[in-house]
Amino acid sequence: MKQPQSKTPFLERFQNWSASLGALLFAFFVHPFAYGASVGFVAEFGEQHYGLGWALPPIWWLVTFVGMAAAAAVILKVIATGGVITAIRRFT
Fold it and tell me: Were 46 and a residue from 10, 56, 58, 76 both cysteine, which residue would form a disulfide, CB within 3.0 to 4.6 Å?
């Protein structure tokens, strides 16, 4: 027997897409500041401890961009679904 496929409601899809787009925009505009402020330390640390100061900046770029985008996506998704209101009502 074939299982019926569930369809995602329009509002949920819209919230997912808007949170993802907002997270990418946030990471695009804020990432250069965070990366620029930390890449010197990361490269120096990698050179002193591992001898890989040249290899870490591209990896660090990817880690910071993905980390910022993921964190922003979670925060925006919570805001879009009303999680903030629920948390305020529950803990006050």
Answer: 56
